Give the backbone structure.
Amino acid sequence: MDNQISQYQSLPGNMLYNNLIANIEQGQIKIPQFQRKFVWSIEETAGLIDSILKGYPIGTFIIWETNDRLRSIRNIGNFQFPDTPDGNTVQYVLDGQQRMTSLYVALRGAKLKDDNGQITDYSEIYVNLTAKSGDPLVLTDKTG
């Protein structure tokens, strides 16, 4: 009985951002269909990157790692990634999808189309190398 219980315990962990991106692109990380769609604006995404660069906490991701395959899933940002390879576990994002998708699109400079056909270009996020203390480091306007 103790072995059954221990297999269901949550385990804290950490992952480098480049490993997170690689896992997304290799089809290891999926979004269950019951999760809401990505809704963060480019400004909210820039704010997340700003917080990371300043060393602020950004919260945790809750991931369910399992051999089970859900019938209704989607990829981060609805991009086309491969299916999770047979024999590998799937990592379903239960909490943190907005932050994870923001990280992905910002680091890849991706473009996302919303339900209204509006395209947001996340390569339009800039780091202000001349920012003064207390000013935002990450901007969505080059002139700012």
Q: What stands out?
A: The beta strands are 29-32, 62-66, 73-74, 90-95, 111-113, 119-121, 126-127, 138-139. The radius of gyration is 17 Å. The chain has four helices and eight strands. Residues 28 and 82 are 9 Å apart (CA to CA).
